[in-house]
Each structure stands twice: as C-alpha cells, then as structure tokens.
Design a protein that fits this description.
- The chain has 196 residues and is of the alpha+beta class.
- It is built from 7 helices and 7 strands.
- It has helices spanning 12-18, 33-39, 44-49, 62-72, 102-106, 161-167, 171-176, and strands spanning 53-56, 74-82, 90-98, 112-117, 123-126, 154-155, 158-159.
- It has a 3-stranded antiparallel β-sheet with strand order 1-4-5, with no helix packed on it. It has a two-stranded antiparallel sheet with strand order 2-3.
- The longest helix is centred in the middle third of the chain and has 11 residues, at 62-72.
C-alpha cells in the first residue's frame, strides 16, 4: 500500500488505460480514497473507473466509506406500518435503502471485506486467512528465519550495488530459460489474463 507514498506517476492515467493490450495488470493499493484524490485531484474518478476490480478491507475514512455506500447501490424494502388512531388501519410501502449505509460499512467486522468486480454484483465475504495458504510456512510470520533481511543490501545508508549485481539474473540466463516448461493455469493463457 505504498502507491500514495511514491508520488504522482507521470502519464499514469494514460498508461493505465492502455496497458491491458500488453497483458500488463496494475494493482493500485491505497489505504483511503482521499490519498488518491490528493495525488490525482481532477482525474481520480477516471483512474478508479479504469480498474475492473476493487477490494475494500476496512477503514474509517469518511469519503471512502460514503463512496463505497453509493457504489453498493440501493435495495427495495417493504415497510409495514400500523395506525393506532381512531380510524385505525395499516399500510404497506416500498422504500429504497442503501444496501449498506456508511455507518454499516464503518462497523463491518474486521474479518469481512467488500469485493467489486465489473459486471458482477458486489460481494461481502470473509478475508482470506493467510495461515491456510500452502506456502504460509515459508513466510516470516510463520517462522522468523524466513524474514527478508534488507540490511544485507545496504552498507549503513548506502545500497550495496555490487551485492545486488551478483544477485541479478543475467540476460543469458533469461534467454536460456525454458518458459515452455512452465505449467500455465487454466484461464491464464496469453490473451485471457484476468483483468485488473
């Protein structure tokens, strides 16, 4: 979620709208919509509109919550009322109501998330439990010895470029790699990449 911290990317809006044809996907991860509004003042809505999916993991920022409530849309509810006065009676009425109000979004369980995918109805679901992932045991959270030691790449405040150069994959290695031996998951063949 460092997108807001790297600063405004020149021509990013134009790039975002054309990268799909090159089978490039972009994941914009921010903590609040106000971060995006601050960086792309006049074009933030277009930027969001160029994204086919959005996942809301929770938060308290008002403009984000209001936008999500509006994005979720409305539902029709039937209300039933009684008149206890002298004439008595009852009535039924259809009313529009936000699917989730801003208050309800703000009070969502921390284990829940909202998922928006273009062409589909919004989904409220449970967040994925990373400890259930088959490779979780390789994470630093599962075992501290798996933590990435960034200090290996620096000499005080300087980057150790020599060490990084020794870690780099050479052009020869890339050219000699047999990419045809890779197993491609169904739906991920060229031209069928999931859109972002």
């Amino acid at each position: 979620d460092e997108f807001a911290n790297i600063g405004k990317i020149p021509n990013f809006l134009e790039l975002l709208s054309v990268v799909r044809k090159y089978n490039i996907s972009v994941n914009i991860i921010i903590q609040t919509m106000s971060q995006l509004k601050g960086m792309y003042k006049d074009s933030w809505e277009t930027l969001v509109g160029n994204c086919d999916s959005m996942i809301y993991l929770g938060g308290q920022e008002g403009s984000t919550i209001k936008m999500l409530s509006e994005k979720l849309g409305k539902e029709t509810i039937k209300t039933h009322s009684y008149n206890l006065g002298r004439s008595g009676g009852e009535s039924y009425q259809n009313q529009g109501r936000n699917l989730l109000t801003p208050d309800e979004i703000e009070q969502m369980d921390r284990a829940s998330e909202l998922v928006f995918v273009t062409g589909c109805k919004p989904i409220m679901t449970s967040k994925y439990d990373l400890s259930k992932h088959p490779n979780y045991r390789y994470s630093g959270e599962a075992d501290a010895k798996n933590n990435y030691d960034v200090s290996r790449f620096s000499l005080g405040n300087e980057i150790d470029y020599e060490y990084l150069d020794n870690c780099a994959i050479t052009e020869e290695e890339v050219n000699s790699f047999d990419f045809t031996a890779l197993e491609v998951k169904k739906g991920h063949q060229q031209g069928i990449h999931p859109r972002q």
